[in-house]
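Obj.: predict assembly geometry.
Materials: sequence records (below).
Method: joint structure prediction, all chains together.
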Amino acid sequence: MSESELLLKVRDLQIEGRSDEIWNPIINGASFDLKKGEVMGLIGESGAGKSTMGLAAMGYTRDGCRISGGTVEFDGIDLVNAPAAVKRSLLGKRIAYVAQSAAASFNPAHRLIDQHTEAPVQHKVSSKSDSEADGIELYRKLRLPNPDEIGFRYPHQVSGGQLQRAMTAMAMACRPDLIIFDEPTTALDVTTQIEVLASIREIVEEFDTAAIYITHDLAVVAQMADKIKVMLKGDEVEEAETREMLSTPKEDYTKSLWAVRSFQRPQKPAVHTSATPVISVQNVTAAYGKVSVLHDVSFDLHEGRTVAVVGESGSGKSTTARCITGLLPPKQGHIEYDGEILPLDYRKRSKTQLRQAQMIYQMADTALNPRKTIGELIGRPVQFYMGLTGKQKRRRVDQLLEEIELEPDTYYSRLPSELSGGQKQRIGIARALAAEPKFIICDEVTSALDQLVAEGILKLLAKLQDELGLTYMFITHDLATVKSIADEVVVMKDGRVVEQGPKHDMFKPPHHAYTDLLLSSVPEMDPDWLTNLLNERGVDNIGDAAVGKM
Amino acid sequence: MSIWLQLIIALVAIAAGGWVFRFVGQKVTKDAPLYRDMPFGVAFGYVLGAALLVWLVSVYYVARTGEPAVANKYFFLRVAIEGFIGFAIIAYYFRLAGIYIGSEGSKKLFRSMPLTASFGIVTIIFYAFLAIFAGQISSLTIIVLAALGVPLCIYARVNFRADAAKSIVGVVSVTLIVFIVMYFVGPLAPYGQEEILGAANVVPGGDPAIGGNPDYPLGTDQIGRDILSRLIYGAQNTVGIAFATTVLAFLIGATLGFLAATIGGWLDQVISRAVDVLMAIPSLIFALLLMTIASVWAPELGIPLTYFMVLIIAVIDSTRVFRLARAVGLNIVVMDYIEAAKLRGEGMGYLIFREILPNATAPLLAEFGLRFCFVFLTIASLSFLGVGIQPPLADWGTMVKDLAQFINFAAFAPPVAAAPLLAAGAIALLTVAVNFVVDWMLHKSSGLKE
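Observations (raw structure tokens):
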């Protein structure tokens, strides 16, 4: 590697964050080099310091953080000690940043193209009209629909995947030497993600831009990066070329990350057709006001089984759950519990009926009242349904905490804010279990969690099912989760059930065209996967474009 | 030289000073980031602040040492500066005391407390003290307090954690001791609030040379009532009534607001539109109008006018509380934990008081502080206009109104002009103090770091 090719040189970078009036280390000495046109993947759990490191590569730290040691050299310029004026002239022009949530990062009051042209005009790279024309050209390259007009829309008029590509275009506006992508596809559906990935990769290659790609999804980073760096709690774990890293990881932590995707439960034998299902959804049609969202949805859930409901956002998965719980009374059809028809509205259901069907939510942050202690959160259903009070209640809560593998004495009087994401989700599970239900709806319970933590939750759910004979309805968009935990799969699209059946049938061809598309869009650990897929299908036959053709 | 020319010269000098300040800073510290990245505006601000400070010090020096003719001009500025420094010292020592005395929790609270909040708390405690002990307290009060406090302590000892019980016992015993001591000390106010003494219009300050009287340290008003006593009783009347009114406004507004947010639909529409109608009428004029009507009804019904005032102001102010409670409630109602509670089959009462209310305390508390100030000012305004708290009850608003004409003496006889300003200052001080405390609470609960 010759010195002239070197773009970014980070040496022994240390960053500290201030909390409770003391400085705590966030990054304890990280070093790496980035050549021109090279893409580095940065992976690790949340809290590993990935984003902090990405920002530090621009010489920037969030409020309350500081760079306490080490150097960041961009093209020979020391970014740590550079005057603000020098940094201003670099950021946006030679170094650009693509944020995780494009929807939250665009200013909702301005058109996309006006935000696009801001940086080039500010840095005097080109005139407003030139950069507008260039923006449209970039939109075309990123294969946004109607590239000539899309820039004149406001952010809320454009879908999430398109916004993410528009933000990539914006980062490209000054043709920077370095772009930092901070989890650009984490919030997107698989079919949308694949399009964004393909366009980002293409444009980065075309302009020979160096990039730091931050993500927690290994399969994604395998497609994008030339080399991968693994971080754990602010420490570097390992750094290697992508292929080498995937085939022969050295450190234990890296190996454990790689192994996550291998958790799989044995398939349970098929149920007797005569058995009464625990929950039976029968010909349910539902609508929000005049917009109909579910059309004639029917499926059964049998005791002790896990039924995964799969589909993209907007396909009606969560609405089905709302119909079952009675939050959204269906227009037509009904829900049967153990052969008995449930009242459509939850307000008309008896306490026992409510108790039998419990729900675990996606965002544990909003599902747990932040002002209540763990004891109160779990204790309430115990008291409400079982009528236990005082010492008996405490004993039952302790027992539940033990079941979800949390130490009762340590956690009983804590508040949700004092727990990690995975622990909060466990509390959500314990709250559902406290009602002693037969049936639990898990609404995307693992999608907000890191892979290792998510695996722990899946294992816990599987263990509880074996012990208590629970029936799960598992709503997810992540097919890896489906593979590991489901017995049966229901695929939904646009409010209809497209296909349903036992898991081993679903993952074997022949598929329904939509199931096929979903399956093929899940990134695999093979670094050639995206290239092969694009060669096989062509750019116009992946992702949303392909969905549109159905 | 005209005043404008002076101003321009001063600004140019400060601008030049700012540039020099930054330049010297850069050279001396060898380009420390603070000076290197300092925009000119910030440098200008530093020098402007320094110039103002120098001016204040020089004025204070003149006010202390100058001839009476010159010194009188700056009399109130001098008082303000002395008051500011005095309060800062008191607040500092209060916080220092809090850091070393009390339970672990309260010590931690005091450590994180800014000086402004410390000042606010000291002031509020002082006002409360004045309000409670203005007149002679009855022995019945002490008996009632003891009857309530002792069972509370016993209950806390049995059911609460040791440290929580300890602080409750501490608070109860300190309160009891203070009440017993004050019972023997007697009323804080030297005279009654309605007592008409010999001399009218005694000048504040107690200096016989300029018409004061040491018996009446803050002077007497136009009909010879002691101003100090009336100020102390004013705390009882004005602050007490304002507090009761605010609590009532919150009971009405928050309850309706949460109900509207939780139930929604037509109930929300009806309450919200009714509130819109009430809010469309300028509040002070509306209050004046209603008070005028009430002043006719009150004698007929035999109910004191003050009760009507509390109700009228509470209803008018509850519309603002309703708006806030509804907005906060709407944000909380969409949370998953509310859905979980609904699906559990919980009733409306549990939803509002156990799920929503704990999450809405921070904004409501902040609003309580602000609302208290507004209510307090409204009462003072109404009293100033003559329809509020009725004489002979002492009230700060009425006191300002009665003595207002003395303000004309400000330039040559500051002690005379101080008479109406004492009550006005009491109002201003409490308003500032409450706002300081509320700011701090809001900052704490919003989870902002530094």
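Conclusions so far: The radius of gyration of chain A is 25 Å.
To do: check interface contacts against the pulldown list.
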